[in-house]
Design brief:
Elements lengths: L1 H27 L14 H134 L4 H20 L1
Helix pairs in contact: 1-2, 2-3
Amino acid sequence: MRSKLISRLAPFLLLTLLAVPAMAEETHGAPAEAQRSLLDLDMQSAIWVLVIFIVLAWILYQKAWKNVLKGLKAREERIRNDIAQAEQARLKAEATLKDFNSQLATAAAKAQEIIAKATIDAQAVGDRIRVQAQKEAEEAKERATREIDEARDQALRDIYEQAATLATSIAEKILRRSLNPDDQRDLVAQSLEQVQKVNRG
């Protein structure tokens, strides 16, 4: 900023340097001094240049330099605020990312837990179904065995009843008549025939 200020002051200094010889001519009024060049400045001209420079510098400091410094300070403060806000945004983004990663890890753990629980539940249901099926199969087997035993017992009872009826009928026939050998053969043949019918039936 100082270099900018100096570049702004340079035209004023140049004008001052040009004005000082003219002022010197007017004060001294000598014609020989009118032909001096810019490089032939005397002490009085140098003092005037210095005084004018100081006055101009003081005026510029009062009017321009304070505003320039004020603008620089405001800009510096704005940059600091921007940096602070950017840092806060970065910290907030990091916290949000950390929170998101934490939530993601928690969700993954819960998903694993749900999958494990579902696997255990499915295994338990499968075991229950298998046990129930085995139980029902055993009950069906026992029921079938019982029904077979009952049917066999019933068949044996029927056979015994028919055999007893047949034996009673044969005995009754034997008792009703006296048998000769032909009758005995016929009676045995009839008895065998009836037994075969019972077995076929």
